[in-house]
Design a protein that fits this description.
Blueprint lengths: L14 H20 L11 H4 L24 H10 L19 H19 L3 H15 L8 H5 L25 H15 L12 E4 L11 E6 L2 E5 L21 H14 L5 H4 L4 E4 L5 E2 L4 E2 L6 E6 L6 H11 L6 E6 L13 H5 L3 E4 L8 E4 L11 E2 L5
Parallel strand pairs: 7-8, 10-11
Antiparallel strand pairs: 1-3, 2-3, 4-7, 5-6, 8-9, 9-10
Length: 393
Amino acid sequence: MDHPPSAIHPEHDRAPILALAGLVLLPFVLLGLFGEMPATRDHPSTSVSAVTAPPLPDLPASSDDTIVVSELAAEDARARNAAVAFAAIGPGTARPFTIRGDETDRNRARDCLALAGMAEAGGSDADQRAVMQVVLNRVRHPAFAKTVCGVVFEGSQRPTGCQFSFTCDGSLARRYSDGAWRLARKRADEMLAGAIHAPVGHSTHFHADYVYPWWSERLDKVAQVGPHLFFRWRGFWGSGTAMSARYSGGEPDPLRLRETALAVASANPLPTLLQSGESVRSITRDTIEREDQSTRQRSSPGAGVHFVLVAPGDSPQALVERARGLCSGEGYCRVQGWSDVSAVPSGLPLPEDARRSLRFSFVAAGAGGAEAVFLDCRLFPAPAIGTCLPARP
């Protein structure tokens, strides 16, 4: 090893002090010369504080994948996303994640990681692994919780601010088949044993390609896996150096986290259309629906597509009047309603399960078309207005 010049002259009284100073300063000199230093193993969390890092960007630490945050219609959002080039910096190279802790920690981390993969990405192998990689990246990033279950359920103990919205929008009530669990757990076990999903690298955020979130322009787009686009923070917070917190176990009980999240969701139910006159989720050109760590802003009425909640006792005529209120102004406007918040889709086009569970559909009168009203006549028997939706198996 090279030594400071003073270290090879023992006759100088200050030699020990200068040698020690040189050793302390050497890592910082190397970091300044070579940038991000390669890492081959997990580093202690103190390695982040050892480097003077810029403040955390003014951006919610959230994937926002299942919350519609787009100001554009689906096809326009796809076009806008496609027009944004992938950042030249690339996704970066994720380091293998090696879980530590006892068997309880391993089982809890595996189940939370598997749940996030299924809830956010469906059944695709690559899509699930990409989401799992983001979760593990967050575990090692100072902006997020330091356990796998902590990251997945982060914010779900509050009425607003959950990081993965499936933990607070009613989606936790969904059930997955034994086969789906088996495959997702296998993938989670592999990721926790050091497998990486290289295409997403250091990504900590993602969203579907049919939405264009307000925060999209503040991050570097670095990858696409299936219908999802993946992003990393710019600068230090998107680097591998920032992802240096050590995982040390202590996984919280996911069953208890789930119970708490469901209790918070049931204590703070979203209002129905007749209760509030507002949509639960909207896709419009002129407004942005945003959910961050502290506040929820619903879209103003206007052209676009509005997803609402309806109840069996609602008056069909009253629903139509409220839908007309949402569709005030010019432009194509549609209002679609479900009776279960977990059935409300995240965006367009509607998935098949959302089509089957649709209870109310309203299309405003516009150029070349008359007003159209459709209702699920099993929920609204013999309505005095509109047409029955066709029965779906």
